[in-house]
Amino acid sequence: MSRTVYVNGDFLPEADAKISVFDRGFLFADAVYEVSAVIGGKLVDNAAHLARLDRSLKELGMASPGTGEEITALQRELIAQNDLDEGLVYLQVTRGAADRDFGYPKDAAPSLVMFTQARTVTDNPTAETGISVVTVPEIRWQRRDIKTVGLLAACMAKETAKAAGAGDAWFVEDGYVTEGSSNNAFIVKTDGTLVTRQLSTEILHGITRKAVIALCEREGITLEERPFTPEEAYEAAEAFSTSASAFVMPVVKIDDRILSNGAPGPVAAKLRTLYVEMARELAE
Ligand code: PMP
């Protein structure tokens, strides 16, 4: 079945959805993106995703393709046209098409592309078993707080994980975990305290990370925002990652070390349940 895709003002069958070969997203990865989950045909925490989109655009001096209300209306129309009940809506913004030149073009109009992916996000069977992760050297650029489409290092990390029989990779820089290849990394210490790296330019400011931290505050779960080493993670009671597409994903093995007897730990499982409950309730 063909999806309907949004491209610069038009809703088109995916085979007809085209972008210029001179688009700077293609030539320079001069583009940013966002992903929002959809539950029951409604968007999860979408205002926060659009606020981060705005921030990414501002950091790169890129024009916005529309107001938050305009973009939300397009997302909703795309969900309706694809009859999407559960899954993801991707939103890609590029600086637009212009003759190839490193300098930013003065008059290019930003391109806006949106597409959906139907998938089970709430009852994801992988969350029942948890995933293993391998640590890999951090080779990404130094502005990981900007959500750019420059994702090749993340693709390489995922391929390394796959080759090792693992579900994901966690990047390590100067001896400390930065984040997962497409998610934020958490560990749970044996005393029940959560640890996740503090916000900086070194990691993406995850929308799910923020929501999970708010849940911890509500539930009286103590959290330390600081870097942690792979060695500390090996000794942790539990680990998990957070993202808009996988919500709270239990991690049951890091490199060769099995955590929480190889099954999702109680804290990760509880936070996942609470997050899904909240997402269902607040989706709009
Ligand atoms: N870090 C990276 C590198 C990511 O790609 C993502 C997801 N796109 C995240 C963290 C998680 O962010 P969010 O919770 O906003 O999806």
Fold and architecture overview:
The chain is of the alpha+beta class and about 280 residues long. It has two domains: about 5-120, 2-Layer Sandwich (D-amino Acid Aminotransferase, Chain A, domain 1), CATH 3.30.470.10; about 125-280, Alpha-Beta Barrel (D-amino Acid Aminotransferase, Chain A, domain 2), CATH 3.20.10. About 30% of the residues lie in helices and about 30% in strands. The protein has eight helices and 15 strands. The two termini are about 25 Å apart. 4'-deoxy-4'-aminopyridoxal-5'-phosphate (PMP) binds near residues 35, 184, 204 and 207. 4'-deoxy-4'-aminopyridoxal-5'-phosphate binds next to helix 6 and strand 13.
Instruction: List the domain count as a whole number.
Output: 2
Which series of helices and strands comes N to C?
A: EEHEEHHEEHEHEEEEHEHEEEH
CATH topology of the largest domain: D-amino Acid Aminotransferase, Chain A, domain 2
Could you give a short account of the major beta sheet?
A: 9 strands, mixed
Through-space gap between termini: 26 Å
Rg value: 19 Å
Strand content: 25-35%
**Number of separate strands:** 15
Q: What top-tier CATH class of the largest domain fits best?
A: Alpha Beta
Structural class: alpha+beta
Q: What small ligands are held by the chains?
A: 4'-deoxy-4'-aminopyridoxal-5'-phosphate
Helical fraction: 25-40%
Number of helical regions = 8
Given as residue ranges, the uncertain stretches (5+ residues, pLDDT < 50) are none
- Mean pLDDT across every amino acid position: 98
